[in-house]
Amino acid sequence: MKIAEIAYPLPLHRTFDYEVPAELSGRVSAGMRVRAPFGPRPSLAGVVLSVRDGESALTLKSVASVLDATPILSEEHLALGRWLSARYAAPIGECIKSLLPASLRNARRALKEDPALWGRPQGVAEPHKEPTFELTAGQAGAVDVLRARLAERKFSSHLIFGVPASGKTEVYVRLIREAVKGTGQALFLVPEIALTRPFFESFASSVGLPRAAVGLWHSQMSVSGRKQVWLGLRGGSIRVVVGARSACLLPFKDLRLAVLDEEQDESYKQDDQAPCYHARDVVLERARRWNAVAVLGSATPSIESFAAVETKELELLRMDERVARSTPPPRVSILDRSLGTSWGGGMAADSGAKAKASAFGSCLSAELVFAIKDRLAKREQSILLVNRRGYSNFIICRKCGWVARCPECQVAFIHHQEAESFIVRCHHCGARAGVPPACGQCKQGPLAFAGVGTQKVVAELKSILPGVRVLRMDSDTVSKEKPADEGIYEKFQRREADVLVGTKLVAKGYHFPEVTLVGVVDADTMLHMPDFRAAERTVQLLVQAAGRAGRAEKPGEVLLQTTQPTHYAMQAVARLDYAAFARQEIAMRAELAYPPSSALVRILFLARTEDAASKSAGEAAGALAATLSESESILGPAPGVHAKFQGRFRYHLLVKARKKERLGAILDAVLKLELPSGVKAKVNVDPYDFM
Fold first, then answer.
1. Do residues 291 and 155 touch, judged by C-beta distance below 8 A?
2. Does the pLDDT value for residue 344 go beyond 50?
3. From the CA atom positions of the chain, what is the Rg in Å?
4. Residue 121 reports pLDDT greater than 70
5. How far apart are the C-alpha atoms of 193 and 503, rounded to whole Å?
6. Which residues contact 61 (CB under 8 A, 6 or more apart)?
7. What b-and-e string marks burial along 310-327, b requiring 16 or more CB atoms within 10 Å of the CB?
8. pLDDT band for position 352 (cuts 50, 70, 90)
9. What is the mean pLDDT of residues 174-197?
10. Among 116, 249, 432, 588, which is most buried by a count of CB atoms within 10 Å?
11. Is the C-alpha dihedral spanning 373, 375, 379, 384 positive or negative?
């Protein structure tokens, strides 16, 4: 008989066998969606992974119906699903589900496709002439090497390490125009926050294809829009897709080039749901399967990619020269805030007016204010990086140390200004409340509003420099933008503001020719996070931010306010020497057995009671310890940094493996752990989120 192997979109680490009944003979193939009885459910939609001839010792249920006339997932796509499951210890059904757009999951009817989505796109190619400007030596060298690799039609992987403003995007565009000749397709991944409308429209018009042949993919798209792009790529009518992280999972018909820009960006790692994949790993794996060229690019590559260059897994292509050759790199100065001016200041909680008045002077040093005034006089623009949104970071009692926290998540409430009033908000579950009038514990001590957010910096600027035009760019302001509206990016580009204040959004690849000053209000924000990547993330953000200054003819200046001016991360930024920092970081991590010198697995236990979470984590640690070799170790268990989140207590442990080839055996042991009812475990391979 014919036996179909089916994966269901459920958190189960297995597939299920079903008999293909005679009436469906010849109609069931791998990659099709079917419906079949599952447990007490009379019918559940799943995807067929394979069909084989054979007999079963068990009595098999039968496939009830077939939803597709032809497979909607190719052999390559199904193999990707299996690879995701094995690589990240994720349920196979959830991995297959992640490959389908929402409109095709748990569908109840057959897929109807538009024939126009197959083959060449209709329409006229966008008029585009090859630019006449001369490429820098680094650009020309990268283009020559990668064009040759494309011509070979073999897998190759490369890291473009280019200083800010070295013209990496121009290299990508020229390679994409080469890759899409004939029937070729190209994937271009960028961090989601960089997917602005102006960027996409400019890019789409530069690749020499009809507009309909260039697709866009990100989380804010409509369900129908995503379906059209998914089907267009699968059929071959869409030749280039520009997208955020999940675009690496899209179907292709003839993939020849995969580009991951700003490859160090943490948004490429999915940590919140299975499969917890990293787009960098997926891009390399898919390029390998397609015999395509994979290109990673960054001014501040991840330490993992730097290490991969040393082991010859990636070929390094350097671009050390800025496109604006006459303009030197920005001058970076460190402003020592460890003495004198206090951070955050104390704010009385009795009135909004007093709060604002007492906060002024606590954020910006005299040197930074003077530099902003100088740019205003020259009619130049400035950017201020404040990697915290809101007004203040937390509210604390000066007498007993009580901190206002979210009751569900037990994380500190963030102090926000809304119109003329103040509130507190949880940045995790979205809970809102009024500002507490007094300490929630001793009821006596005065409250201090500590830390600096984007709102506070904007308020201070307007107080110190009356008439200054300020725009704020953080997730609160960007989320309010509508597609039809002119965004913050466009307004600042058109010089409708003198100063742009924002979180890390302002450091991500924007080109503002009139920006000659970048000020970092608190360069220490990420340096003290409980994360072995804290220094790396700090240096990457600050170097990227520094790269926004002096990108055209006018030289730039960068001022870093820090309380740790001698820290090796700050010194690396001051020298703009990321390569030296990376080498030092690789050596330090090797001593401590942290990636990239080891594989890391985080197991997070969640339960309604702290005792259940703690006990399950402890028992799991003991069971795993018995399976590990001498080169492997366990850290923990310990309460999560967010010990309680959305009503659940959290304990976690980390497994380190110096021999990465042992990762599969470790994950097998992890998946065999038995957990009591009411306790859930989340497995994250190579985690980026330790909170």
1. yes
2. no
3. 27
4. no
5. 11
6. 18, 19, 36, 37
7. eeeebbebbbebbbbeeb
8. very low
9. 88
10. 249
11. negative
